[in-house]
Design brief:
- The chain has 15 helices and 13 strands.
- It is of the alpha/beta class and about 400 residues long.
- It folds into 2 domains: about 140 residues, Aspartate Aminotransferase, domain 1; about 240 residues, Type I PLP-dependent aspartate aminotransferase-like (Major domain) (Aspartate Aminotransferase, domain 2), CATH 3.40.640.10.
- The strands form 3 sheets. Strands 2-8-7-6-5-3-4 form a 7-stranded mixed β-sheet. A 4-stranded antiparallel β-sheet has the order 9-10-13-12, with helices on one face. It has a two-stranded parallel sheet with strand order 1-11.
- Strand 3, helix 5 and strand 4 form a beta-alpha-beta unit.
- Helix 12 runs parallel beside helix 15.
């Protein structure tokens, strides 16, 4: 007997996001999601009750230290890291990847090779390509311009005994396509290289399990996963211990993650992260009996709901003769996240969002820091793409409201 999956109850979801009570429809979520009420509550709680320096002997400092540590522990559990020390918190994904690349730099020799893609956000490209000045050879794994896919055979052709690292996105913030990270990891590791994955466009939509993926490094922005303006970088413990640090010279190399956190992390923001996995656990518990991995069950609900949103918008766009979808046109949520980009014949992409502004619908156009991809696809003269990025708190009614207004101009 087929058991029907429960439908995501949007009334329950949206009560966690006070900003959704207003008049605006937020479809620019890939740039930054709305924030959970409990996250804001934790920030306030820290600042009012424990806003002191860490590591002192007095009670308030001890409480602050425990709260910051709780944030790292919560994130380690959220991504299934083996140890909280494998979680580095910082100001942004861009900053964390630059720190990682600079720490990786002394381990390389002239002639060593790094593979980047032309589909990533620049955060996971420039920190690596800048190592060319030290004699590192940079190779580019390019998207097939017809299928919009990064094909494994193309990566395999780039790998050699000198390959030290491959940097790739888990999901493109323009194309929306989900890349097969575990298969990529297996291929990269078979060539005795390391894998660094940018999960910024993936993490708001699907469960991240760093052990199941067998990634060496993985990063994403927490302000796009319903949290504060902070980011996370995961690294396998043995790799982090072996890398030189980025902090003061007297910080011990065994002091992870602190040796990668000059100035430390934001205390109040770190503590607020404890509310993120609690939200997903509450989501799972609300929709059915307990059992198994509650965060996994929550993301299963999210995937199913986002598949409905995908189907609704993509069906509309396919039927507009002047519209070209940039990315896979499938609505299958196992193949793509609900970030959907398109261009319009005889219309510059910058003409579309302002029309929707007047109707309190927020979308965006541009290259979204994936400039190399937009250039290679020949879309820069068109002012890039129009991007609609939906998440699980968006409703079918909001999607229909968007479609109604797009129909007036497309």
């Amino acid at each position: 007997m087929l058991i029907q999956s429960p439908t995501l109850q949007l009334d329950f979801v949206r009560q966690y996001f006070p900003s959704l009570a207003g008049d605006w429809v937020f479809f620019d979520n890939a740039g930054g999601s709305q924030i959970l009420r409990p996250v804001v509550d934790r920030i306030t709680e820290f600042l009012y009750e424990s806003n002191v320096q860490l590591g002192a002997s007095y009670a308030v400092s001890q409480r602050a230290t425990e709260r910051v540590a709780a944030g790292s522990k919560a994130m380690a559990q959220f991504i299934n890291a083996a140890d909280p020390a494998e979680v580095i918190l910082g100001s942004s994904t861009s900053a964390l990847l630059r720190i990682l690349a600079q720490c990786f730099r002394p381990t390389l020799e002239p002639g060593d090779e790094i593979v980047v893609t032309n589909a990533d956000h620049e955060a996971n490209i420039s920190p690596w390509t800048e190592l060319e000045r030290d004699g590192v050879v940079i190779k580019t794994w390019r998207v097939n311009p017809t299928t919009f896919d990064l094909e494994l055979a193309d990566l395999e052709a780039l790998l050699t005994p000198r390959t030290r690292l491959v940097a790739v996105t888990h999901a493109s913030n323009v194309l929306g396509s989900i890349n097969p990270v575990r298969a990529i990891a297996d291929l990269v590791h078979a060539h005795e290289a390391l894998l660094c994955v940018d999960g910024v466009a993936f993490a708001p939509h699907r469960r991240v399990d760093v052990q199941a993926l067998d990634v060496d490094f993985y990063t994403f922005s927490l302000y796009k996963v319903y949290g504060p303006h902070q980011a996370l970088l995961y690294g396998k413990k043995e790799l982090l211990l072996a890398l030189p640090g980025y902090n003061h010279y007297f910080i011990d190399d065994a002091a992870i993650p602190y040796k990668f956190q000059p100035g430390g992390s934001s205390y109040e923001l770190s503590y607020s992260l404890t509310a993120i996995p609690e939200y997903f656990e509450a989501l799972a518990q609300h929709h059915g009996p307990a059992g198994g991995d509650s965060i996994e069950r929550a993301f299963d609900l999210i995937q199913t709901h986002e598949g409905v949103l995908n189907q609704r918008l993509l069906s509309f766009l396919r039927d507009r003769p002047k519209v070209r979808i940039i990315g896979r046109d499938t609505a299958d949520p196992t193949q793509r996240v609900s970030t959907i980009s398109f261009v319009v014949e005889d219309m510059s992409s910058d003409q579309v969002p302002p029309y929707l502004d007047a109707h309190n619908i927020g979308i965006r156009y541009g290259h979204f820091y994936a400039l190399r991809l937009i250039e290679d696809l020949g879309l820069l003269p068109n002012q890039g793409v129009v991007r609609v990025s939906m998440v699980h708190y968006n409703t079918v009614e909001e999607c229909d409201r968007l479609i109604e207004k797009l129909a007036e101009i497309l």
